[in-house]
Amino acid sequence: MFSPFLKKPFDKAIEQGVIPPHLNIIAGTWGAIHDTGELTYMNLVHLAGVDGTDPDSLTQGEIEGRRQAIMAIEALRRFMPGCGGVRLRNFGMTIGIRDTRKIDAAYNITETDLRQQGRCQDYIGISPEFIDGYGVLIIPITGRYMQIPYRAMLPGKVKGLLVAGRAIGGDRIAHAATRNMACCAVVGQGAGVSAALAVRSGRELAEVDMAGFQAELVRQGVRIA
C-alpha cells in the first residue's frame, strides 16, 4: 500500500465480475492506518446525477452509494494485498454533496484562472491549484496558486448579500477547486471581515475600502498574495 490512491483492485474486480463494468468510477483514497492495521478512512464511491436539493434523490443516492461501498469492500478483500480480512466498520452518516446551487457572481472564477494562476486587484487570499472533480484531479504539490477575488462572493444582482463557501461564483472546473475546505476557509474569513468593515463604515458590501480590507486580512495572518 505504497500509495493512498486505490484503483487497480477495482479494475481487477470488474475483470472478474465482482463489480459490474459500468461502475468503473469506483476508486479513491484511504486516509491512515490505525495501530490495529485498520484503514481509518476510505473515499471510494462517487455518484453522479444526485440532486442535492431533492430529498428523494438524496435517499436514492444513499442507497446506491452504500450498495457500491459493499462491492468495493469485497473487491478489496479479493484483490488488495493485506486486505483479505477487511471489514466495514461504518458508512458515512449521510451522502456528501459536492455541488448544488451556486451564485451568478459579480465575477465568476474560471478554469483559466485556476490553471493559469489567476491574479486580481480585489484578492482576499489564495487557493492552491487543487482540482478534484468532474474527472479532473490535480494535486497541490507544485506551489502554484490563484488569488481569490472578492467579487466572486458578491451576487451580481443582489445588494447587501455575501455568499461564502462552495457556493461562490465560478464555472464547473473552478468549482472543483473552490469547493475544497482550504478555499472555503479563506472565503469564509474574507466574508466575515468584509461584513464587519461594511457595518463599521456604513458602506455597501460592494463598496468596502479594498486597501483597508486587505490590510485587515494581513493583520489577521491571511496570506493574500
Along the chain, the helix and strand elements come as EHEEHHEEEEHHH
- Major beta-sheet overview: 3 strands, antiparallel
Low-confidence stretches: none
The percentage of residues in β strands lies in 5-15%
Strands side by side in the biggest sheet: 1-2-3
Structural class: alpha+beta
Relative helix content: 25-40%
Alpha carbon gyration radius: 21 Å
**In total, how many domains does the architecture comprise?**
2
Overall geometric form: elongated
Distance between the termini: 37 Å
Number of helices: 6
Write down how many β-strands occur, each being a DSSP E stretch of 2 or more residues.
7
Q: Give the averaged pLDDT, no decimals.
A: 92
Structure commentary:
With 225 residues, the protein is α+β, with helices and mostly antiparallel strands. The protein has 2 domains: 5-79, no CATH class; 111-219, no CATH class. It is built from 6 helices and 7 strands; from the N terminus they run E-H-E-E-H-H-E-E-E-E-H-H-H. The strands form 3 sheets. A 3-stranded antiparallel beta sheet has the order 1-2-3. A hairpin with a 2-residue loop joins strand 5 and strand 6. Helix 1 (8-15) crosses helix 2. The chain is elongated, with a radius of gyration of 21 Å. The two termini are 37 Å apart.
Short description:
The chain has 225 residues and is of the alpha+beta class. It has helices spanning 8-15, 55-79, 111-115, 172-178, 181-201, 210-219; strands spanning 5-6, 28-30, 42-43, 123-128, 131-133, 136-138, 145-149.
